[in-house]
């Protein structure tokens, strides 16, 4: 075995975390596309500041079982190809799109999660304490 590699050595793996704001959804009116700062992801209690107004404290929860995140996109319309004898079918070889068909969505997996980061509203003193801990 080469001296530069060890059996326990592993490359950095990507880890995805879901930011769960359901616990504070009814309490705050967060504007769409509001700027935010998320700090302390490598600590037990990350801090999320939204629009320089709302200060939230997070706590990690491990997921149970398999948790997969999906993305949803508009799917291409369904196209029907007309077939049949050319004498009786004026549209032979043509493709027809059914305009009565409702729009469809295509769902694709994005990633698998191991953790969910749940947030709650915190006081200014909690944020100051956490900021002091993170800077140590």
TrEMBL record:
<feature type="domain" description="Transcription factor TFIIIC triple barrel">
    <location>
        <begin position="11"/>
        <end position="120"/>
    </location>
</feature>
<dbReference type="InterPro" id="IPR019481">
    <property type="entry name" value="TFIIIC_triple_barrel"/>
</dbReference>
<dbReference type="InterPro" id="IPR042771">
    <property type="entry name" value="GTF3C6-like"/>
</dbReference>
<protein>
    <submittedName>
        <fullName>TFIIIC transcription factor</fullName>
    </submittedName>
</protein>
<dbReference type="GO" id="GO:0006383">
    <property type="term" value="P:transcription by RNA polymerase III"/>
</dbReference>
<dbReference type="GO" id="GO:0000127">
    <property type="term" value="C:transcription factor TFIIIC complex"/>
</dbReference>
<dbReference type="Pfam" id="PF10419">
    <property type="entry name" value="TFIIIC_sub6"/>
</dbReference>
